[in-house]
Amino acid sequence: MLFNVDRIQCKTELSRIAYRLAFAAMVAVALALTVTSSAQAKDLTNRLGVGYANQFSTNVPSLAVRYYPEKHLALGAELGVDTEQGNSQFGFQVNVHRIVFTEPNLNFYMGSSVGLISTQANASTTQSGFELSAFVGTEFFLAGLPNLGFSMEAGVGVTSISSQVRVRTIADSPLQAGMIFYF
Asked: What pTM was estimated for this model as a whole?
């Protein structure tokens, strides 16, 4: 019985550490988002982009929307749905990006996201929770295709689903990169 109590206390302590790490990452990103940048970014001001991404811990590809209300600030949302029998998944998240460094066809940004997820482990059990993440990323544009952006991100995320808290690193491979077309 003592072993189980120690295990619960250890799990609780790990949860506290995970939340503290996530909070520290969010504060760092929030501070970075408030710093003004003098870089010359690819100007996407007042442009709406639509495409896809794969940022959820449940590995459900999603439709993505991104809007730039200012030259160095983007707001986005992603929605992913998979209705597979006995293995359904759902995810919705919102995110904010702040461009911190630019090249002629590349924007380097920092950002954070918060989202809701739901996954069905088997035919009778559904688990729901939330995700928080802080990341850095690049969005690059090929010469001759100025409206099509390819993005890759890396960072840290915290997922809390039912009774489990998970801290994970985030990294996109080039084959998993997001793609957004700007109107």
From this structure: 0.73
